[in-house]
Amino acid sequence: MTIPQQYALDSQESVYTAAQAIDSPNTGSTTFDEYLERTKDVDPSFYEEYDYSQPDAPTGRGRARAVVWSFLDKVPVHREPIESPRPDLVEEWPANGQQQNFYRLDQNNATEQQQAMDIIHGESDGPELDTIMTTGRQVEHQGGGSETRSNIHTADLQPHMYAEITPAKAEELGVDGGDLVVVSSTDRGSVLVKARVTDRPNDGEVFLPFHWGGVFKGNSQEDKYPEGTVPYAIGDSANAITSRGYDVETQMQETKVSMVAVRPATQELLEELGMDTDLEFPQDRNDIGSQKNFDVRDSETVQ
Amino acid sequence: MSQSNKEVMGDGVMSVGEGTRIFPDVGACIDCGGCVVACKRTWDVPQDEQRISISTMLEGQEGSGMSGAAALAQGESPGETSIPMQCYHCENAPCVSVCPTDSLIKTDEEFVDVREDLCVGCQYCLSACPFGAPQFPESDDGAAQVFGTGGTMDKCTMCEERQDIGKGPACAEECSTDAILVGQPSQIADELDKRDEGTFFNDVAMDIVFGEDAGEFR
To answer: How many CB atoms lie within 10 A of CB A278?
Structure first.
């Protein structure tokens, strides 16, 4: 191994000590040391500010410094999400514009962003979209969840779709963990999910897992499954309301930032949105996952 | 896992057979439930019964940045911590001491075993166990019919049949972060030491679980 490789793999060494080692080599072979002395082009003082050992990422100490000439952003820059809580940042870092025949599709993130920002921050008669929704995984489920929600053990461990909110937010909404809440997007409708109260998110953020189906926008689809194939656990789909943004290079959809409103599921609101007012979950009916606690304020040790 | 990480963290299952102990590395547990599912799948445990279950305390709380055991020792909050709870097959097993019918015994392999045909379902062991290991599935047959106390006791078997053919317990083999350590007490202590992780349990609990071998962990 070369000296930089050796030092990179040792978590006790730093970039600075590696530069020093190259500057005054001690490889055990005088001939090689002399060769290194003659050919070296490293000035240790240049690396002095990097004199801290660092725990290694499994992939080593590589850094992305590439310039990619064929990308829209030749070096990585920040772009505000399509739906942002900060109009000033959208002005400074707007999404990229028109793309033609991109993976055989046309897309224009800048237009989508403008339309979304108009709804979020302009005058509208809808609810105030003041909460950032992030979607992601639950460790117990996989993908769309059709397999893990149809498996009694994993369904039992993580029995419900939820919106994870902070105790302060729950207080503000007047909901307890396990109560139903409506999460509404700009122009893609709303979903009906349980509230889960923990200290993990910020007050201005809500987290929704994406492994759920069997309820769509507040309407149970249970009766549409063929006989005997209803999963043990069903819930509304977070992907129904994520933002319209797509990455300009990879077409990866934007699932981490959407602006939403979280409201308690009152009878009146459910009727207004055309949602089931008597939504029933097979997991509740069959007593699956009933040990799961949805409110950290109950201060129980959870399972 | 890269080579350098491998040097810090060994496999969870280090040895099996006589005198083998099972113990959690609380710092490594990520509350994924893999052990729970592996146990139920392997032994056909019903959905509402837990031979192993993960208890999560201080859910969503940030810790002081130290390892959980170090934080506790200094009186700081360990932050969100998940502990795989099961039968640890204690050296000084309180359940064995309180069992009125000698249904609970230490086997030759030094595992704590329940002889179901002797259990009367009195649930003394449930009160005696510091770790919530004994399970009492509802039942209305056998001894339960005579004493009217619900089912007989069921708990972790240490996967003795698997160990007989050289395999580790299902939970430990399944654990993706090697948080369930299986081996001789000295091996478990060494592994925790290598990971720079403490035991999380207090001295009293450690004396119950490991008896004289608790000294290995200090």
So the answer is: 6
